[in-house]
């Protein structure tokens, strides 16, 4: 038998056997001596590895990614857990509100949470929704952590201190959403329970509205007599103008009590329910805004915008004509759709209209501002009945009842029914 091995390629096994048999017949080989043909199955390891290599690499990538992310998340929580355990084990000096000097207004507000936690059933019986927490805002070193520690000690619960960065790493998306009406109603219940009342009155509603729209009353805010008198005359100007102008929004209350977000005082009006406004209505609204003798910056900004809208947008100016150039806030707003000549006319008209409104306002409030300001300095808060005694009945009253009139009429009918 030959020791040589021959390797060659062929297409089909059946075709190869047929040609081999035909060749042996032509050579006259005895069929019993035909070359035996056997088949042996062999696996090409290289091809197998190359076929499965992409799938193996993909699975390895998924495994590594999952393991890495799992370790990272676990490490974040373990780090926070270690800090909490460390805080729980550490001996922290107990701090109470009596140990904190100053911060009287902040302590007064944060002490409400202590009362909530200690007397939660009292508030729940009145239907109050107990706050889930408080946000202490202020520059570093003003006592935020100190107040939080005192709150925990007063209630007798653990105090856990975690930095804001660690908190945001673990829990992202802390959000706040709510309706002002719901906030007012809930604040009403809290105020009633705070004063040990079993029923809610209109006084509680007024106090809740003042707190929601104006912030916490700043009882300890130091104001000089000159500043207080200036604020009183400023708010008196708004009150007198709103009282004697036909198209001004009905005046509800004026106060010079400092509050958190309302600076040193504010005048509260009943929103006008008219959908359309005439040129005379806009003029009266401008006069009311200008009626503060010491006009604040936000008053002047509002007046400027109102007058520009009348001249540029609504087409109320005879000199500019029936043209409208709506104000745009995008990048193209830098390019005005009118010439420099038209711009000069618009600016001249705005100055003239503001001057006219201011002169009319000064003439209107000159006679009555002193009486209102002196009474405001004496009482700090004036309601409609107080203004009626000083200014007389409002000369302009709508024949159509507003939603506020219907609301107050409901209370009157309820009182009659009880009596």
From TrEMBL:
Q: Which family does it belong to?
A: In the N-terminal section; belongs to the AAA ATPase family. In the C-terminal section; belongs to the peptidase M41 family.
Q: Extract the coiled-coil ranges from the record.
A: none
Protein name per UniProt: ATP-dependent zinc metalloprotease FTSH 10 mitochondrial-like
- Tell me a GO biological process for this protein: mitochondrial protein processing
Ranked from the top, the taxonomy reads:
Eukaryota, Viridiplantae, Streptophyta, Embryophyta, Tracheophyta
InterPro entries (UniProt xref): AAA_lid_3, ATP-dep_Zn_Metalloprotease, ATPase_AAA_core, P-loop_NTPase, Peptidase_M41, Peptidase_M41-like
Q: Which cofactor does it need?
A: Zn(2+)
According to the record, the segments passing through the membrane are 48-65
The residues the entry assigns to the signal sequence are none
Question: Which is a Gene Ontology cellular component entry for this protein?
Answer: chloroplast thylakoid membrane
Q: Which part of the chain is the AAA ATPase AAA+ lid domain?
A: 176-207
């Amino acid at each position: 038998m030959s020791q040589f091995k021959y390797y060659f390629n062929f297409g089909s096994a059946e075709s190869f056997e047929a040609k081999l048999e035909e060749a042996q017949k032509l050579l006259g080989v005895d069929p019993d001596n035909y070359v035996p043909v056997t088949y042996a199955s062999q696996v090409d390891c290289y091809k197998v590895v190359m076929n499965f290599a992409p799938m193996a690499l993909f699975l390895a990538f998924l495994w590594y990614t999952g393991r890495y992310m799992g370790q990272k998340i676990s490490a974040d929580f373990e780090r926070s857990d270690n800090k909490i355990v460390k805080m729980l084990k550490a001996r922290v000096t107990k701090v109470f509100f009596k140990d904190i000097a100053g911060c009287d207004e902040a302590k007064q507000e944060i002490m409400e949470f202590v009362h909530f936690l200690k007397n939660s059933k009292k508030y729940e019986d009145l239907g109050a929704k107990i706050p889930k927490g408080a946000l202490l805002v202020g520059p570093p070193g003003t006592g935020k952590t100190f107040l939080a520690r005192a709150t925990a000690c007063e209630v007798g619960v653990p105090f856990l201190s975690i930095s804001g960065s660690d908190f945001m790493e673990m829990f992202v998306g802390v959000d706040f959403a709510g309706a002002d009406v719901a906030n007012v109603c809930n604040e009403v219940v809290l105020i009633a329970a705070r004063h040990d009342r079993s029923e809610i009155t209109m006084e509680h509603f007024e106090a809740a509205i003042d707190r929601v729209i104006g912030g916490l009353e700043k009882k300890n805010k130091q104001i000089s007599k000159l500043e207080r008198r200036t604020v009183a005359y400023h708010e008196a100007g708004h009150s007198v103008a709103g009282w004697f102008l036909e198209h001004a929004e009905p005046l509800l209350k004026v106060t010079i009590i400092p509050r958190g977000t309302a600076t040193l005082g504010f005048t509260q009006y009943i929103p006008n329910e008219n959908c359309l406004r005439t040129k005379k209505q806009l003029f009266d609204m401008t006069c009311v805004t200008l009626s503060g003798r010491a006009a604040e910056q936000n008053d002047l900004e509002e007046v400027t915008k109102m007058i520009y809208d009348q001249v540029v947008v609504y087409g109320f100016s005879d000199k500019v004509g029936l043209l409208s150039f709506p104000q745009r806030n995008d990048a193209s707003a830098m390019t005005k759709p009118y010439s420099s000549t038209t711009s000069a006319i618009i600016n001249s008209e705005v100055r003239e209209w503001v001057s006219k409104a201011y002169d009319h306002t000064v003439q209107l409030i000159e006679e009555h501002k002193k009486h209102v300001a002196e009474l405001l300095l004496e009482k700090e808060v004036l309601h409609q009945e107080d203004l009626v005694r000083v200014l007389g009945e409002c000369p302009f009253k709508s024949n159509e009842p507003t939603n506020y009139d219907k609301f107050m009429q409901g209370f009157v009918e309820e009182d009659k029914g009880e009596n």
